[in-house]
Design a protein that fits this description.
Layout: E1 5-9, H1 14-25, E2 30-34, H2 39-45, E3 51-53, E4 59-61, H3 66-73
Parallel strand pairs: 1-2
Antiparallel strand pairs: 1-3, 3-4
């Protein structure tokens, strides 16, 4: 089974909640990572969250919808 995606997020982020709904709707496994407790993650993703990343280092930043996410997963983005 493929590794779950990483969803960089933080508490109270309404865009992050929308991203979770999109991931859930298409049945993608993901692990949320709250950037708040890691200064390096805050510096990298602070104004870009939500960001989805795979185990190969590819990232998909917001905004995205289900179609864009599926295209990204298929490797065509």
């Amino acid at each position: 089974m493929a590794q779950p995606l990483t969803l960089y997020t933080t508490a109270g982020c309404h865009l992050c909640e929308q991203a979770e709904h999109i991931l859930d709707a298409i049945g993608v496994r993901y692990q949320p990572v709250d950037i708040e407790s890691d200064l390096g993650l805050i510096e990298r993703y602070g104004i870009r969250i939500p960001v989805v990343a795979d185990d190969q280092g590819r990232e998909l930043g917001w905004p995205f919808d289900g179609s864009a996410l599926q295209s990204w997963l298929a490797g065509s983005v």
